[in-house]
Specification:
The chain contains 16 helices and 21 strands. With about 450 residues, it is an alpha+beta fold. The chain folds into 2 domains: about 260 residues, no CATH class; about 140 residues, no CATH class.
Length: about 450
């Protein structure tokens, strides 16, 4: 099962580089071009220069954003902008954030995890990945031989043995920073040998479920295979056999998954009345008419109703371009999914995202599953009000509002070796990049 190990992480020397809040950045795949520029302006030592550097029109194979990142990393290491720990450690990582009126804390730890092929059953993915991001991340890993952020992963700890060890860590953190979305991120090194041994021993019998960072794991796997092939042999102990992960409990009440709503556009020959007739074959349909004054309130009612029904029904919200109505769509019979996807497990068939993508978008709208990932007709939007505005402004034909995927559903689908449709989960909060860096060699 899982093999983990402490490591000597590289961290910013704030005495030379400045305050940590000016040095870190969000995950590269949610950074807009404008945000990328803003991060460059924040500090000459912001990790954006390593993780997601600016491209130049004059880039060549010898001089590009990957080679520049490698040169910057070497310079910052030499000048002690970044400093490597003297002793192997785990790094306790806590995120505190608001969820509605509640305050939640998610506490886990950063460690190295031995890279395993998926068919070993040790590391379990749950989403499909795209080739473009994997190529980009592999080029960066080849150049820098380092990772600047961690893969967000989960393990089951129902007795709380590992969380009990983590709970003992207190006092002032080595790093604390509030991100732009008001999440407070805290990091403490954990280097007590007994605590490390306890965590390593407890993790040895567990599977690891990738929550966020499938592209990064696939990249680490490809890089490991490249290095093994080039070397001709491997002992298994070389640095490239390991990848840095943030590991949190599946059972942690601080774990949150947000929904990703779907807006659809460029729908050829779309007929709202015919589409409603098609939906009526499978769904109970409730319509809420609104006017200008009630529009926002009625959207809230739709989302609130969906949330209250989430534990016992498959329900979606919908709005159609040009109409002054919201719809609630509730699947009548789960057996329809059995007939539609006979080769898939019940865990996959019963996912809301499976029902939406396979039954509604593929079968009823005629947008085939293999094209969803191309983004020709579908965009995924976290904020319901923003998604609603798209159809309000007639920019898209349809919006579907989603309930979030449940943590247990992630585990169930991953355990049977299947992968959910794209953007099935949006784990929150997102890990910051640059808090702890793993230098492979």
């Amino acid at each position: 099962m899982a093999t983990i190990t402490p490591f000597r992480g590289m961290v910013y020397n704030q005495a030379k580089a400045g305050k940590i809040h000016n040095l870190v950045c969000p995950p590269y795949d949610i950074i807009s071009p404008a945000e990328q520029q803003d991060l460059y302006r924040k500090s000459p030592y912001n990790v954006i220069r390593l993780e997601y550097g600016l491209a130049s029109p004059g880039d060549t194979e010898e001089d590009n954003r990957y080679t520049r990142a490698a040169a910057i990393l070497e310079d910052w290491s030499r000048t002690a902008i970044l400093q490597q720990g003297t002793e192997p450690a785990f790094y306790l990582y806590e995120m505190e954030y608001h969820a509605g009126e509640d305050v939640k804390k998610l506490r886990g730890f950063i460690s190295l995890v031995r890279i395993e092929d998926y068919d070993s059953g040790v590391v379990k993915p749950h989403e499909t990945t795209l080739s473009g991001p994997k190529t980009d991340r592999l080029n960066l890993l080849r150049a820098c031989k380092a990772s600047f952020s961690q893969i967000f992963s989960l393990f089951s700890d129902p007795q709380g043995k590992i969380s009990g060890v983590l709970a003992k860590v207190a006092g002032k953190p080595e790093m604390e920073v509030k991100s732009s979305d008001n999440v407070v991120h805290r990091v403490w090194p954990l280097n007590d040998k007994n605590d490390i041994e306890t965590i390593v021993r407890e993790m040895a019998g567990k599977q690891i479920f990738i929550a966020d960072g499938h592209h990064r794991y696939d990249t680490a796997l490809n890089y490991r295979n490249e290095r093994r092939k080039a070397a001709g042999s491997s002992t298994g102990g070389e640095g490239y056999n390991y990848v840095a992960m943030f590991l949190a409990r599946l059972e942690d009440p601080g774990l949150t998954i947000l929904p990703a709503h779907r807006v659809l556009f460029n729908l050829a020959n779309f007929d709202p009345r015919r589409f409603e007739d098609d939906l009526n074959r499978y769904f109970n349909i409730e319509r809420i008419d609104f006017d200008r004054r009630s529009e926002a309130k009625d959207l809230h009612t739709v989302l609130d109703t969906m949330a209250h029904r989430a534990d016992h029904a498959h329900v979606f919200g919908m709005r159609v371009k040009g109409e002054h109505s919201y719809y609630l769509l509730t699947l009548r019979n789960e057996a329809d999914m059995d007939a539609l996807l006979p080769s898939k497990s019940p865990a996959y068939q019963r996912l809301d995202v499976s029902i939406l993508h396979h039954l509604i978008i593929d079968r009823l709208l005629g947008i085939k599953m293999e094209t969803h990932k191309l983004g020709l007709n579908i965009e995924y939007i976290k904020d319901a009000a923003e998604a609603d505005k798209r159809v309000h402004d007639d920019a898209v034909e349809l919006v579907f509002f989603m309930n979030p995927t449940k943590v247990q559903e992630v585990k169930d689908v991953a355990t049977v070796g299947e992968r959910m449709p794209q953007k099935a989960t949006y784990f929150y909060p997102k890990l910051l990049t640059g808090l702890v860096i793993h230098k492979i060699e």
